[in-house]
Design goal:
This protein has twelve helices and 16 strands. The protein has 360 residues and is an alpha+beta fold.
Length: 360
C-alpha cells in the first residue's frame, strides 16, 4: 500500500537518525506561498555541530521520471516566485530511482527518500550524498513489470517500428499480426507507464519513442528477471540432418522457432554445430518424431539438438520464416545472446545496432 504525503513526512521525521549528520529542527506543513502556490512543507534542517538551512519540500508518493521531472519544474517555479536564494529545494519520496537521481543532479535539486538515500546541496556550505540502499517500497516502481511477459510486447513493437503509431488500436494490431496476443487495455496501461517513465511521447503525430536505448535496457532487464524466475525444460536429441527435424515439425504442424547460436548462424553472425529450438510442447514434438521416419532420438550425452519447452509467448513474436525454418527475430536473439556468456554479448552488440535503427 502506498504511503500518503503526511505519512511520508511522519516517517522522515521519526527516522531522521539514519540521515545523520542531518537533523530536523522544525517542520511546517501545507504552507501557502505567493499567488496561490502551496508548499507541501517547509523543513528547517541542521547539520550536527554545523549550519542550519530551510528547505522547500515537495512530496511525491510515487517517483516515476515524469513525476520527478514535473516536481523539479514546480520547485524551481516556486523559488523564482518567492525569490529567496537561501531556501533549498528538496524532493521527498519513498524511493528515488537511478534515472531520477541523474535528472535531479542536472537540475541541482536535492532529494531524500525513506530508504535512507539522499543528496543534499546547500550552496557551497553543505554537500551530503548517501546512495545505494535498496528499494524498500517496491510497489512504488510499477514500471519495471511492463517489461516482462506479454506486457513487454508493447516495448518490442515500439522498437520494431521507425514511424510513430497513430493509435492504441494500431499498436494492438501490429502485435497480434506478428504472432503476439495482447488486449487494448494492456496496451493502454503499458503506454501510460512508459509515458510516466519518459520513454515515449504521445502527440498529434502519434506515439513515439523518446529514448530507444533506454527502452531496450528496460526490455533486457525484464527479460533477465523473467528468465531467472521461469526455468524452461530442455530435451537433448541426436539428429543426422537438422532439416529432418523441421520437416517432421512442419508435417505435424508443431509450433517451433530456431533460437540461440543456431539462429545467429542462420543470420550470418556465428558458427556452431549445435541447434537450439523453442517448442510449445515436448509431447507434440515426440508425436511428430513417431509419425516421421527421420532418425531423431534422445541423446543426452552426445546429442547436438536442444529442444526448449517454453510458455513464454514472446519468443513467437515477430519470428521470421525461411523454407521450413522459423527463426526468432533480432530483438529476441539479442536478449538471448546478452545472457549467454561469454560469446553471446559480442553477437548481441552486432544486433543492437540494427535494433536501435528500427530495422525489422
Amino acid at each position: 500500500m502506498r504511503l500518503k504525503e503526511s505519512e511520508i513526512i511522519g516517517q522522515l521525521q521519526s527516522a531522521i537518525d539514519k540521515y545523520a549528520p542531518l537533523t530536523i529542527k522544525s517542520i511546517e506543513q501545507e504552507i501557502p506561498l505567493t499567488e496561490g502556490f502551496r508548499a507541501d512543507a517547509i523543513i528547517e534542517f541542521c547539520i550536527a555541530e554545523g549550519p542550519c538551512f530551510k528547505a522547500l519540500i515537495e512530496i511525491k508518493t510515487v517517483a516515476t521520471p515524469k513525476i520527478i521531472s514535473q516536481a523539479a519544474q514546480q520547485l524551481m517555479a516556486y523559488l523564482r516566485r518567492i525569490d529567496d536564494k537561501t531556501i533549498v529545494p528538496v524532493i521527498v519520496v519513498p524511493y528515488m530511482g537511478t534515472e531520477q537521481t541523474k535528472m535531479l543532479q542536472r537540475e541541482g535539486i536535492s532529494w531524500i527518500d525513506l530508504c535512507g538515500n539522499m543528496v543534499i546541496r546547500v550552496q557551497n556550505r553543505v554537500y551530503i550524498e548517501r546512495t545505494g540502499i535498496r528499494n524498500q517500497f517496491p510497489d512504488t516502481s510499477p514500471i519495471k513489470k511492463i517489461f516482462e511477459g506479454t506486457s513487454s510486447l508493447v516495448s518490442r513493437a515500439l522498437l520494431l517500428k521507425k514511424e510513430p503509431f497513430r493509435s492504441l488500436y494500431e499498436v494492438v494490431n501490429f502485435i497480434n499480426e506478428r504472432g503476439g496476443n495482447i488486449t487494448l487495455s494492456t496496451v493502454s496501461k503499458v503506454l501510460s507507464l512508459l509515458e510516466e517513465g519518459l520513454l515515449i511521447t504521445k502527440t498529434e503525430a502519434g506515439i513515439s519513442v523518446t529514448n530507444r536505448g533506454k527502452l531496450l535496457e528496460g526490455i533486457l532487464e525484464g527479460y533477465v528477471s523473467y528468465t531467472k524466475r521461469n526455468k524452461n525444460n530442455i530435451y537433448t536429441y541426436d539428429v543426422d540432418n537438422i532439416n529432418d527435424l523441421f520437416v517432421a515439425f512442419y508435417e505435424s504442424q508443431v509450433n517451433y522457432v530456431v533460437c540461440g547460436f543456431y539462429a545467429a548462424r542462420i543470420k550470418g553472425l556465428a558458427a556452431t554445430d549445435r541447434a537450439t529450438v523453442f517448442i510449445e510442447s515436448i509431447n507434440e514434438a515426440r508425436k511428430a518424431f513417431e509419425r516421421n521416419p527421420a532418425n531423431i532420438k534422445p541423446d543426452t550425452e552426445f546429442g547436438r539438438l536442444d529442444l526448449i519447452e517454453t510458455r513464454n509467448s514472446c519468443v513467437w513474436f515477430n519470428m521470421k520464416g525461411k523454407p521450413l525454418t522459423n527463426i526468432v527475430d533480432d530483438l529476441e536473439l539479442y536478449l538471448e545472446m546478452m545472457i549467454d556468456t561469454p560469446r553471446g554479448p559480442k553477437i548481441a552488440e552486432m544486433l543492437k545496432e540494427r535494433i536501435l535503427k528500427g530495422q525489422e
